[in-house]
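Inverse folding, one chain.
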């Protein structure tokens, strides 16, 4: 863990909430659409994987983090996504990284998700830990809003980062960060990226990039249970 500086900025999210997409948007804005899976780790280091890398292209430094509320994170962009979609995406990531058997039922994984036994705890607790303890500088970006208008949400992020807004560069960044292009890059670089190299190549890290995919996996009983457990987090973010 590098020594944190007063002007460090943190892109914080519960896993599978759009952090990688946000990093690609920022990286593509700064590089004129030249970002890839290797460069994004270099420009916006992951505090859980490669914190030793320093930011080369912009100051202050920007780091990715999945931790719940940290009082020493003074400047935070919190990336949020409907927890039901998070659970589905996390399920496929666990299969991809061989943490569960690919024959594991979604309902079985959801029991673990709802128990809070996964590495970053309960989704709703993570959400409320940040929204109830807002830092000195704090911005919430929802995945669903990024899907509706990625340019508008990227502009909010860049303003928070203190980066000059140039409309042409916004268009380039959004186009270069489309899910189709990220999907293609993942396929090309799968065995070059340490975090992907040993995972199942037939299950993609970049999946559908949609909202509401949970409807294909939740029945009424699972959704009722999920809302009971995660009500506060969903309410804070406007999902109820």
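Residues assigned per position:
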């Amino acid at each position: 863990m590098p020594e944190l500086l007063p002007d460090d900025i943190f892109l914080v999210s519960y896993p599978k909430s759009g952090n990688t997409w946000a990093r690609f948007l920022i990286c593509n804005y700064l590089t004129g659409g030249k970002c890839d899976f290797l460069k994004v780790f270099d420009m916006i280091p992951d505090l859980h994987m490669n914190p030793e890398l320093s930011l080369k292209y912009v100051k202050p430094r920007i780091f990715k983090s999945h931790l719940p509320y940290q009082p020493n994170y003074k400047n935070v962009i919190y990336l949020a996504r409907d927890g039901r979609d998070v659970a589905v995406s996390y399920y496929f990531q666990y299969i991809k990284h061989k943490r569960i058997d690919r024959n594991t039922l979604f309902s079985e994984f959801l029991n673990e998700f709802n128990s809070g036994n996964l590495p970053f705890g309960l989704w709703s607790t993570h959400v409320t830990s940040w929204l109830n303890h807002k830092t000195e500088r704090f911005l919430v970006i929802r995945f669903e809003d990024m899907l509706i208008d990625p340019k508008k949400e990227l502009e909010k992020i860049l303003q928070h980062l203190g980066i000059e807004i140039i409309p042409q560069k916004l268009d380039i960044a959004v186009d270069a960060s489309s899910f189709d292009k990220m999907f293609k890059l993942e396929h090309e670089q799968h065995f070059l990226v340490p975090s992907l190299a040993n995972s199942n190549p037939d299950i993609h890290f970049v999946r559908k990039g949609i909202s509401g995919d949970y409807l294909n996996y939740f029945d009424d009983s699972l959704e009722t249970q999920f809302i009971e457990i995660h009500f506060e987090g969903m309410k804070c973010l406007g999902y109820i």
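Residues 9-237 form a domain with the Rossmann fold fold (CATH 3.40.50.300). The radius of gyration is 17 Å.
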